[in-house]
Write a structure and sequence with these properties.
alpha+beta; Ubiquitin-like (UB roll); 10-stranded antiparallel beta sheet
């Protein structure tokens, strides 16, 4: 036996809307139904609900002189319908800011007015009005009035000339000057080190971008489970009226241990281990000890990463390792030391300069007149490094989306001692 399946359909039919964009906006707002109404009462309820959705869309798009009539069409099954007369689009006129309390300085008032970005004669959409209010508050806060807030706005919808006249009520508060950094933590971080990361000096005018930059610098270290950076309230102000920025830090675990193992048909089995210590020097540092052991290659090494070394936004890495390679043709032992300095040029761009020294001794076996003689070769290599990287991933440690790109230039210079036989 065949059975009919009803496809999803809008809660009600829409009549009277000729503008394609408006009609599509209404259709997107309507609730979908799995099956037709089973009675006229249910169809009428659907029509009323759809009518409310239509009104919300009309007002959001700047139509305020509308007529919306929910109804039910005759027939079986009964169908809900909404008859719409949108009326004219109401246009923006005379947007203004009313300052509650003491107004900010003249420059701030002018930039706040510019931030509204409401064009006279454009449709008076609700989202545009709300967005304009948010931009005004954000602009005033950026110019140093950290306590700026919006009070209930007044929007006059004039049916005589079909205009929307928004009036924003903004409380600017007092101009805020910053003090130092107050660190709240139960971890190992030295508060004085955090204070040196602040991109302002005591007495500077508050800028939310400076506060965000301090948080970004702390997150770049990757040694904290959580970071909170916020301006202290007026009750924490100093005698001069300066307000500190409160930094709350929760350290990640002080140590982690990583193991990995692999097998290759050409090189055999191998294991690698890393012991990583965080914030040992109380300045968001990372120390990594590594050990690699395989049939052909063995190594042991250490690396210290010092973020914001000597100045913010640059990381110093010191590394060293000992290695040994055993093959049928030769045995090689050696040591490597390296220094890298990485500078963050922009939020997502990094430049690295480095130098490394590699000292090695190779013992190889050669046939000479039918006998086996050992030959030693000593090699010293100095290499310079220049690299540029772009990171547009969503997470520096565990990216799920985005992309990364790195370009590297490496110029090695080697010195070889004459081979000798043993």
């Amino acid at each position: 036996m065949a059975s009919a399946a009803w496809a999803d359909e809008p809660m009600a039919q829409i009549q009277g809307v000729d503008d394609k964009a408006l009609r599509e906006a209404i259709q997107r707002a309507l609730t979908q139904s799995k099956k037709p109404a089973q009675s006229r009462a249910e169809a009428r309820r659907r029509a009323r609900q759809a009518g409310e959705d239509v009104i919300a869309v009309l007002r959001a798009e700047g139509y305020y002189a509308y007529t919306v009539e929910p109804d039910v069409l005759d027939g079986e099954p009964p169908r809900a319908v909404v008859k719409v007369t949108p009326g004219p689009v109401f246009l923006v006129a005379d947007p203004k800011i009313d300052w509650a309390g003491n107004p900010p300085d003249e420059g701030t008032r002018q930039r706040a007015a510019t931030a509204m970005r409401l064009t006279i004669g454009e449709p008076g959409r609700a989202a545009d009005v709300v967005g304009a209010e948010g931009r005004v508050v954000a602009q005033v806060a950026k110019l140093g009035y950290a306590d700026a807030e919006a009070q209930p706005r007044e929007v006059v919808v004039d049916h005589a000339d079909h205009t929307v006249r928004p009036s924003f009520k903004i409380v600017a508060g007092e101009l805020v000057h910053l003090d130092g950094v107050e660190v709240v933590t139960q971890g190992r971080t030295n508060p004085a080190w955090v204070g040196r990361l602040a991109p302002w000096v005591s007495g500077d005018v508050y800028d939310p971008e400076d506060v965000a930059e301090l948080e970004r610098r702390l997150r770049d270290t990757s040694v904290y489970d959580s970071i909170s950076v916020a301006l202290a309230g007026p009750d924490k102000a100093t005698a001069e009226g300066f307000r500190p920025v409160v930094v709350t830090l929760a350290d990640r675990r002080a140590r982690t241990l990583e193991f990995s193992a692999g097998y290759s048909t050409s090189e055999g089995a191998g294991v690698d281990a890393k012991w990583i210590r965080y914030n040992r020097l109380k300045r968001a540092d990372t120390t990594t000890y590594s050990l690699g052991f395989a049939k052909l290659e063995q190594s042991v090494g250490a690396e210290v990463s010092l973020p914001h070394w000597r100045r913010p936004q640059q990381t110093l890495k010191l590394s060293s390792s000992l290695f040994r390679n055993d093959t049928d043709a030769y045995n090689e032992t050696g040591a490597t030391i390296g220094v890298d300095l990485t500078k963050r040029r922009q939020t997502t761009a990094y430049r690295t300069y480095g130098v490394s020294l590699d000292l090695s001794q190779t013992k190889e076996q050669v046939n000479q007149n039918g006998s086996v003689a050992g030959r030693k070769l000593n090699l010293a290599t100095v290499a310079g490094l220049v690299a540029y990287a772009w990171d547009f991933s969503d997470n520096i440690l565990d990216p799920k989306r985005g992309w990364r790109l790195e370009t590297r230039g490496n110029r090695p210079t080697s010195w070889v001692t004459p081979p000798c036989r043993t």
